[in-house]
Amino acid sequence: MLGISVEEFIFWKQKQLSKGGDQQAFAHLLDCMGGISSSDINLIKINSHRILYLKKNLEYLESVWDEHLYRSCPIQYLCGITFWRNLELKVTNKVLIPRPETELIVDIVFKIFRRKSEKLIFAELGTGSGAISIALALAYPLSDIVATDIDQDALEIASKNYKNSSKQSNLKFYCGNWWSPLENFQGKIDLAISNPPYIPEDTYEKLSKEVKNFEPKVALIGGEDGLEHIREIIQKAPFFLKEKGWLILENHFDQGEKVKQLLIKNKFTSIEIVKDLSGIGRFTIGRYK
Ligand SMILES: C[S@@+](CC[C@H](N)C(=O)[O-])C[C@H]1O[C@@H](n2cnc3c(N)ncnc32)[C@H](O)[C@@H]1O
Predict the structure, then answer these.
(1) pLDDT of 197-210, one tens digit each?
(2) Atom 13 of ligand 1, residue of closest alpha carbon
(3) What is the torsional sign of CA 264, 186, 103, 109?
(4) How far is the CA of 220 from the centre of ligand 1 (A)?
(5) pTM score of the predicted model
(6) Which of 50-64, 127-141, 195-209 shows the lowest mean pLDDT across its residues?
(7) Span 184-198, mean pLDDT?
(8) Which of 42, 67, 111, 229 could pair with 196 in a Cys bridge, judged by C-beta atoms 3.0 to 4.6 Å apart?
């Protein structure tokens, strides 16, 4: 641990923020690499005579901040960590950084299955860092969660994240295309979730450098109209869901109505478009018959 005066720290912090970037990314860097949380920073405002103890020296933290600013590399990849709900997750450029808006998907499940003591089978298709599945495995310890991804590297990160978050063994990972690795679960799944790649090809080209140059393409692009994967997931869902089983999909901001029509076409009922905290129809949910 390296001790520095609060005065020196504040001067340095202002210099870094004057170069650009946002406060949230800078707070992430300080927290993950410097070992200084936002509440520590609030405390120094009250007691400016304190000595601050850092896990890494200011030169090192500055070099990471510069890399973030000049290469547009997401701060989470540079730190190797992101925070999502109450989880601390390892992330590399093999997995999408789980987004805050996706956190709500877990609350939708909580509303559907209120009793955490039930023994259910949940599936997540395209688990990436494992965020959603790990949150469900922890919240429903008696249930089994099966999670798939096409990318073996992503699954290795998801497995590590699960081991770091829990001593339970109710989450299993499978490599393969959407439902394919889940043949043994046909007709047995109470609820399936997916936040699949849904960005239309031409929209992908317009994404920020931070996303396009660093996050995995396979996690983002959903074919020409963005709905290629959503269509496949919905069409095959009836083989895997129990009668009255639920499907929850995350979609692009303007896809809710189209996803709803796909669900209707495939005989789903109780269909609802659920808004995120910004009022965007971010999730579309339905029950199989
Ligand atoms: C948008 S990311 C979602 C990751 C994570 N569930 C989340 O919400 O942060 C989509 C994920 O789907 C995976 N994926 C893409 N195509 C797939 C396919 N054909 N079968 C299974 N998984 C796929 C990607 O590797 C990626 O991890």
Answers:
(1) 999 999 999 999 99
(2) 126
(3) positive
(4) 8
(5) 0.96
(6) 50-64
(7) 98
(8) 229
